[in-house]
Amino acid sequence: MELNDIDTLLSELSGYTSPQHTRGPVVDVIEVTDENINDYILKRTSALVDIGAKAVSELAEIVTQGQNPEEIASLAELISANTHTIEVLNKINLNRKKEKHAIEMKKMDIEGKKEIVNLIPGNVVNNNTNVLIASREEIMKQLCSGRSAIFSDEPLELEDIQEEKEEENHK
Questions:
Q1: How many CB atoms lie within 10 A of CB 82?
Q2: Residues 89, 50 contacting (CB under 8 angstroms)
Q3: Distance from the CA of 112 to the CA of which of 44, 119, 127, 157 falls in 20 to 30 A?
Q4: Separation between Cα atoms, residue 90 and residue 85, nearest integer Å
Q5: Short-list 150, 112, 144, 117, CA closest to 131
Q6: Looking at residue 106, what is its pLDDT?
Q7: How far apart are alpha carbons 25 and 46 in whole angstroms?
Q8: 16 CB contacts (<8 Å, ≥6 apart)?
Q9: Distance of alpha carbon 96 from alpha carbon 89, whole angstroms
Q10: What's the rounded Cα separation, in Å, for the pair 6 and 171?
Q11: What whole-number distance in Å separates Cα of residue 165 and Cα of residue 160?
Q12: 38, 112: one domain
């Protein structure tokens, strides 16, 4: 019986073929610049998480069957590394959300301050394009003369004031 068992074992071993190692997907090389570094980190980190999760699931079955302490320690390190990678990806996600939220809050704060300024009476800014250019003496003469040249659309000229003064003196 032993001879049959050995023959059977030899026939099984001779018919055994080791699994062929297939190459993984070809990873395209991306040149990292300041503009695309965030996308690069997200893509690579998510790919690393996927690879790590797949490796953990494949190795978990093998390690639990073998009961080898070195394999168990290796699996534990792989799980730890994969967990750390997920935490990094989560931190990146939270920082992006925090950035967007801060920008929105700043915009809302600015809009709110503008609304408050517009609601307070007396803070209305009117653009006055009527400009009066005259010396203090000229203005006082115009006020005292009773003429409303200050509010007229015509510019105030020194010659007109002198003519009016002469007319007043002759009267």
A1: 19
A2: no
A3: 127
A4: 9
A5: 150
A6: 95
A7: 15
A8: none
A9: 11
A10: 148
A11: 9
A12: yes
Rounded Cα distance between 76 and 68, Å, is 12
Are 79 and 147 in the same domain?
Answer: no
Residue 142: how many CB atoms within 10 A of its CB?
A: 19
Residue with tokens 């009016």: 164
Q: Which two tokens stand for residue 4?
A: 């049959």
d(C-alpha 45, C-alpha 156), whole Å: 76
Q: What range defines the domain where residue 103 resides?
A: 33-119
Of the chain, the end-to-end C-alpha distance in Å amounts to: 155
HEC string for 80-102:
HHHHHHHHHHHHHHHHHHHHHHH
Walk along the chain (171 residues) in steps of 10 and give the mean pLDDT of each run: 74 71 64 80 84 86 79 86 87 90 95 83 61 80 66 65 75 62
**Other residues' Cβ atoms within 10 Å of the Cβ of residue 79:** 16
Is 3 part of any domain?
no
What distance lies between CA 118 and its chain's CA centroid? 30
Domain count, the chain: 2
Round to whole Å and give the CA distance between 18 and 12.
Answer: 13
| Tokens at 112, concatenated | 């709110």
